[in-house]
Design goal:
183 residues
């Protein structure tokens, strides 16, 4: 191997290592209390992300129940303090818990509805919370009692500005292409 080839391989490995080291991920789970799992709980992670937000929150909800009401109050309070919130929901007409949140939409609180499309089975099924363009929770858990405490759910909390930007780009694309509609 030549010296030049060795340098190129070194640069490639260094670049790859640098990319991987910028991503910090951990397992997030909803499991019965009797399980001894070394992972963060979904409920605690969701609460911590929302309460700790300082600049912005991107959040999606496929199924939202009254169980999430306290955190809706936190989202409203955050928006009133100037934290920019984008909340994406599947078929808002079927979600009873959004009435209160809708009353507070405004400059810092934007709510987007995915009403479905030509395919009646199509849904905004993603469950994501991204905070301050730094931390992103991608999970199977809905914002409901069963999603946060009753079911068995798995997710990942990723600390990466790159991943957070990719998530934000996807939802920005949905807005600009009118796949979701601001209410």
């Amino acid at each position: 191997m030549s010296w030049k080839q060795a340098e190129e391989i070194y640069k490639m490995v260094s670049t790859a290592y640098g990319l991987n080291s910028s991503i910090d991920a951990s397992l997030v789970v909803t499991v019965p209390p009797s399980f001894a799992v070394k992972a963060k709980s979904t409920k605690n992670t969701v609460e911590s992300l929302i309460q700790g937000a300082e600049r912005n929150i991107l959040i999606t909800g496929y199924s939202l129940s009254g169980y999430f009401a306290d955190l809706l109050d936190v989202l409203i309070e955050k928006s009133q303090k100037g934290i920019y919130i984008k909340f994406f929901v599947n078929n808002i007409g079927a979600q009873k818990s959004f009435d209160k949140l809708c009353r507070y939409k405004g400059r810092f609180l934007h709510i987007y509805d995915f009403p479905g499309g030509r395919d009646s089975m199509a849904a905004l099924h993603a469950k994501v919370i991204s905070v301050d363009q730094e931390k992103t929770l991608i999970t199977s858990a809905n914002l409901s009692y069963h999603g946060q405490e009753g079911n068995i759910e798995l997710g990942t909390l990723v600390k990466s500005t790159e991943i957070a930007k990719q998530v934000d780009d996807i939802f920005t694309h949905l807005i600009f292409n009118k796949v979701v509609k601001e209410i």
